[in-house]
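Quick one: Vacuolar protein sorting-associated protein 52-like protein from Auxenochlorella protothecoides, structure tokens please.
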Amino acid sequence: MVQTAVQAGVDPMNEPSSIPAGYGAENGEDLSLGLGELDLTTEHLSLAGIEKDVEALADHEVLKAILDQGLDPREYGRRYEDELRQAELASIEDYIAEADTLIALHTDIKECDDILQGVEATLAHFQTDLGSISSEIRALQAESQSMNAKLRDRRALKESLEDFVGRVSLTPDLIHGIVQSDVQSEEFLSALQTLGRKLASAARDPDLQGTVALRDVAPELEKLRIKAVVKSRDFLFAKIWDFRRPRTNVQIKQPVLLRHKSLVAFLGEHAPDIFGEVRAAYIDKVSAKVLDLFRNYWAVIDRLEEKVLTEADTLGAAEAPSSGGVLSFFQRPAPAPAAAASAGGRADAFSLQDRALVLSHVEGPPLVLHAAEARGARFPYEVLFRSVNKLLMDTAAHEYLFCAEFWGDAGVYAALFAPVLAFVESSLAAALAELHDPIALLLMVRLNRECGLAMARRGNPALDGFYDRINLLLWPRLKVLMDAQLASVKAMPVDPGSTAVPIPAVHLLAERYAALTSALLLLQADLPEEPLESNTERLRYAVMNALLSLSRLLPSKRAGTVFLILNFGHIVGVLRGTAARGLPRTGSLSQQAMSQAASGGGQGGAGANPALHRTSSSHGAVDASQGLGASGAALLKEIEEGLHRCTSIYVDDMLGGALPELIAFVRRGEALASGLPEGQALPGCGPPEAAPLAQAFAGSWKQKAEAMCREVTQDFGSTHAARGVLQAVFTQLLMQYSRFLELMKKQGPAGLGVVRDAVTLPSVMYGLNALSR
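--- reply ---
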């Protein structure tokens, strides 16, 4: 149809494009597509002005290519217009072919629109229903809150009423429990607690006071209170009076009371006067019971005490014969069998021995005194003191804890135990006035300190202040005894007209002093500030002076020197031996070692028994004097210096008598050699004068050494001092001979000739070593 229009000379672009009339009418269909702007058939196109555009675009490459082909642009344009019309017709055919599909799509869209309108209506209905439900929910919430508030109010009212009724009502169970049940039953104790709460509410609750209900039950409540007070009082008094029965163990009875401490709490709150009466009765009865216990214990202590030292037993006391005809240490009655069995030497009473073992048993059980008395046992006072302290610690700690829990007041314990502590302090003060043993007192000081530390470890303040008061009793008495020992030494008769001439041996004063001082220094070494330092120093000075005075009474200077060496050596040996052992750490001082200290020291000597110089394995290789403390180390040093001076005097005297020419030659030669050059002969001390001396020494040194050995043995016997002095003599002999040879070596060939002919120094050393063994 388009081609026909073109052939007819009609411009299709200028004609309306439409479907021929009647097309499809036979089917009764409306073929109008309603394409709107997409309908190309209805568009009127105009080519006016195209020539101007072509001229303007003459230089365009595409247009230039068309023109280069030699075609007429108009012809070329018409060709393209034909192609466009053909494309338009093809597109129209496509639209017509899809017309049914578009109609079906239009129908579906209308149906969907209807469905969506129905859904919209349903949702609107739902929205209306939800609004109605929300209003109903809000109404229900408001009603629920109102009901909850009413329920809370009713519950609060119910609780208040129940509490009020519970505080003012007296139930049959409560009345029966107070009136009918036994005091020891659980029913009574439970009823008593309930009654206590009701009484407390009636007395202190302002909401309850003044109410009609309380006025109605107040008389009955008071009757129940009185009944409970009477029954509680009678029960507690009965239990307290049981404490006074003979052979009653208070600590066994107290747990029964502890199970009924609610009775005391009830009386304390609702019957203060009765509470005070019961409290006073408990303090009176238990205090008397505990006081009787300690009185009986102390009475047996007086019978079991072993008198180690009496008032007459001092360092300066004279040795007197006993009734048995043997020398007694002190002028006192014969010791008890136990004491006599433990004695092993003349100074045993002043020595520590195994008495320090008591320090390792501070927490041990107290002595069962009646059993000890039955078997005839006797104990030094420090052992009895420890036993009393242990009994006091256990009793006081138990009573303090019981009073704090049962009475709720530590004042009950203080009132109860005050008479007991006063008795112990007064009894101890009286006993100390009769005690003359400084070692026992210092052991008691340490025991008192250890007991205080033991109570501190328990965290129990029951005996706070008590141990300080005991210290104030012990230290002054110890000072008095030390002053008495010092006075006895100063009062010793040391003039020829008042005492017998001593013999060169260890004096009783040195034995006693060594034993006592070593014990005191060891026991005070780790105490704060070493409180006996001044006392021990004054005592040392007095003893040294006394020994010097005694040495002057001997017939010769050498005998006096021997006397001092023996005594100083004994003191040094005992001090070093005691320091090496130290105090017991695990409950055992070596009794054998202590016996060696007494017996070996009793023999005297510059170094005393060798065992005393060996430290125990627990101390290692340390200075033995450190075990005596700073003051003990200083004291030991002073005595050792005195021993060294006396030994030097003895050695010089012996060598001066055995080798006077050799020693005089050496001294004179050394004095001359100090001003002359080496290699020059010394006038009067040259090789000619030295040769006879060297020859004489070579022929006689062995005999003289043996003679000196016999002389030392004669002076010192078989004591350890003999070996120490002999070694000092031989050492000095070797030094003098060595100096003699050195003088000769410095005087040229002649002097060297004398040295070659003389006996060699190693030969002399070997011979002296053989004699020393």
